């Protein structure tokens, strides 16, 4: 079976004169269960562009990495909640369709 993959790249526009953030997000079929699971990978390259001392640049990059990680976790939790809600709604819809099919199949 052919592996499915979606890769997205983004670059920050906000504060782009002071900070460069290049993010790559990849969704691909899980090798163990390609029809049931998706692997998610998120990477970011963060570089402080401001002039000045290296210590200041390092601290800006460290802080930005910490915030990026926090935001990534929050985003993942939100995305998983949306997926779970979608599974539930689609499952309920499939159940209603099965019930309708059974009713139609019983009609004379």
Which tags fit this structure?
108 residues, alpha+beta, three-stranded antiparallel beta sheet
Mean pLDDT: 88
What is the alpha-carbon Rg in Å?
Answer: 22 Å
Termini separation comes to 44 Å
State the secondary-structure class. alpha+beta
Q: Describe the sheet with the most strands.
A: 3 strands, antiparallel
Number of helices: 1
- For the biggest β-sheet, the strand order reads 1-2-3
Helix content percent band: 40-55%
N to C succession of SSEs: EEEH
Taken as a percent bin, the fraction of beta residues is: 25-35%
Low-confidence stretches: none
The total strand number stands at 3
- Global geometry: elongated
Explain this structure to me?
- By secondary structure, the protein is α+β, with helices and mostly antiparallel strands.
- Helices cover 49% and strands 27% of the residues.
- It is built from 1 helix and 3 strands.
- The chain has one helix at residues 54-106, and strands at 5-11, 19-29, 38-48.
- The chain has a 3-stranded antiparallel sheet with strand order 1-2-3.
- It is elongated.
- The two termini are 44 Å apart.
- The mean pLDDT is 88.
């Amino acid at each position: 079976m052919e592996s499915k993959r979606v890769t997205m790249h983004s670059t920050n526009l906000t504060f782009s004169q002071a900070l460069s953030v290049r993010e790559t997000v990849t969704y691909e079929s899980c090798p163990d269960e390609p029809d049931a699971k998706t692997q998610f990978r998120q990477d970011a390259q963060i570089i402080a562009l401001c002039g000045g001392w290296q210590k200041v640049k390092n601290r800006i990059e460290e802080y930005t990495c910490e915030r990026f990680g926090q935001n990534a976790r929050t985003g993942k939790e939100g995305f998983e909640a949306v997926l779970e809600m979608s599974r539930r709604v689609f499952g309920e819809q499939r159940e209603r369709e099965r019930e309708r099919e059974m009713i139609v199949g019983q009609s004379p």
